[in-house]
Fold each of these.
Amino acid sequence: MAQFPASIVLAGAGRMGGAMLEGWLEGGLDPATVQVLEPHPSERLNALAARFGFALNPAPQTLRPPRALVLGVKPQTMAQAAPTLAPLAGPDGFVLSVLAGKTLDNLAAAFPGAGAVVRVMPNLPASIRRGVSVAVADARAGAQARAEASALLEAVGAVEWVDDESLIDAVTAVSGSGPAYVFHLVEAMAEAGVAAGLPRALSERLARQTVIGSGDLLRESPESAAALREAVTSPGGTTFAALQVLMREKDGMPALFAEAIAAAARRSRELSG
Ligand SMILES: NC(=O)C1=CN([C@@H]2O[C@H](COP(=O)(O)OP(=O)(O)OC[C@H]3O[C@@H](n4cnc5c(N)ncnc54)[C@H](O)[C@@H]3O)[C@@H](O)[C@H]2O)C=CC1
Ligand SMILES: O=C(O)[C@@H]1CCC=N1
């Protein structure tokens, strides 16, 4: 595995920043090399700090530009946070941002001292080190910075690099937001089970375990999702009856997903600036 950056400042350790930090520390990052700025530490973050002993909200005068300045704040917070954080972006380091919508140009403008900028879209399964991240770097990022960024992302799951930054809006819509679609699927299946007569608690357990088991099967099977779907679907059987509704051209899942993902990608573009 590639080496972690020699020094890291993580600004914003909420759900995503905190998940990444946990993955780094579990993955062997030396806690002495990371400083965390988080105005509202969660219980989980405080417990992590107590366990690993990294610096949580150190005195501002002790901060120096690190090799990697990792941004985990909300896109809407960036304008307010950037002026305070910008002095931490030095020419020997890179900024790694997970902010939805914020482009390499936006980041370079907000952090003019940075040696390079890497824009990443991770997803929430990073919190159990099963995330998937897509990264794009600006032209100034050399092989070493890319390798160090990869090490940070590999600690929380799979990593893909792209050259075309414009793909990140669709990436955000598919894998960044995607876990929410799956969780909503569980909610919708459970609710439909209740409508079909199941006791609520049983329906919720069945919907949840079905998604868990199907996800595990996807991971372990070499078959495509389409082949696995076909394996469940007996000709003229119950699944076939359901899929005739779900795969309906006009208002089935493909049409709904096309609309939902286009909406998310559009929102990602709007968050730029
Ligand atoms: N939650 C998710 O599934 C994903 C989130 N993201 C991105 O991750 C970023 C963070 O999202 P979440 O973790 O969900 O939000 P969050 O609200 O849990 O975390 C943001 C954190 O930033 C902190 N913060 C606010 N101002 C700050 C400042 N000036 N300095 C340092 N920290 C500050 C807040 O206290 C908060 O804990 C967003 O930009 C989002 O687009 C990307 C992919 C997936
Ligand atoms: O909803 C959002 O804007 C963020 C980015 C991807 C997942 N959560």
Amino acid sequence: MSTPRTLFDKLWDAHLVAPESPEAPAILYIDLHLIHEVTSPQAFAELRARGLRPRRVERTKATMDHSTPTLPAGPDGVPPYVDAAARTQVETLATHCAEHGIELFDPGAEAHGIVHVIAPELGLTQPGMTIVCGDSHTSTHGAFGALAFGIGTSEVGHVLATQCLLQRKPKTMAVNIEGRLAPGVSAKDVILHVIGRIGVNGGTGHVIEYRGGAVRAMDMEARMTLCNMSIEAGARAGMVAPDQITFDWLANTPRAPKGEAFERAKREWMRLSTDDGAHFDTVVEIDAADIAPTVTWGTHPGTAIAVDAAVPANDDPAATKARDYMRARAGQPMAGMTVDVVFVGSCTNGRLSDLRAVAEVLGTRRVAPGVRMLVVPGSAEVKRAAEAEGIDAIVRAAGAEWREPGCSMCIGMNGDTVAPGQLAVSTSNRNFEGRQGKGARTVLASPALAAWAAVAGRIVDPRVAAREVAA
Ligand SMILES: CC(C)[C@H](C(=O)O)[C@@H](O)C(=O)O
Ligand code: SF4
């Protein structure tokens, strides 16, 4: 009998061009290379300087998302870029794609939006693949049982030129989430809880496999939310073994194999799970029943606590600094904090199920006076599907802004920013100082919690809010 292997081991072995040695990292074959406007310009410049051309253009797909405006183009047809640099960045990618024959999903295309939203919905992301992108949240694609991770700009150039990547073999971590999630607890609460437990460096050097009954019960969008934030725990990648839920999703995507080819692929995909008895370097056990609606109090995602908890009172310098920046008092309950902005969107929570959760809370309610709420679908497809259900109408009637797809206020590169000192409840993945704008204070949360915060004008426990409404 051969040694039992983890899902990660199987993917690693299947893509190994040359194993690692003490002198050199392993060489891995890359099945899908996603590129966007922020981390590709220097890579293309490097190629040109060396007289090289992309090796496998059909395995390279491009999109624009970070610097693209979320307001429609003016009468001149030019999108309202925040500045000339943003426009140049976007136009440079278009030029590079045209020059090399790389398929580009630009705002003019039917399919466009955030790279980690469009690749799965197109079916470009498939189980068993190695997927890289010059973007840390590439871990999202691991939800399909792919080995997917972010790479640096010089590596983008390397992959463009060779379709291969130099990598040291990471360690493996199992995060077992057993039991059932309580009502009102979503995948976002789960991943915030996990990061709160293991810390922002807890996954360093590891590839995480999320396992257990609570994960198996999640739909694909929830699994993507889970894998998306693996990087915020320091992990190289996150993954979930593919199953019938994965195959059903893929069957409805335009680029997945069709007919007999799909059945053949599915037979291969079904082998992509961790063998019984396979060894993980690190194992973390989580009881799903322990997970509450979760928020962050500080300036990194590891500061996740239950929404009914209080800002910790520990007096180490980092905590003091974070409390000062957040203008939060030690011992202050999270619930009740005044909210200025609510952002719903990003590659973490900008999918249809997320917008449905928001619409369900909003219903016929209105955003509290003085609160600005921005709802940004993750892709054109998400936007179309949401509009077909009337979600845009609910959002607008509530007094919130309904935008074009893109990264938007997750990172603020396109001009959608939070003003200095304002507190934003955000469904995105990073609450670093200045992330959403200079001096902006970010509280990470699920879509449902964000929507309740918009309605109340303060942070509220969605369980309490739902109970009060029902009473
Ligand atoms: C701009 C890009 C390189 C960056 C990343 O790598 O993740 C961004 O997407 C982010 O979320 O901070
Ligand atoms: S939505 Fe946010 S996290 Fe995702 S790729 Fe864009 S900037 Fe990065």
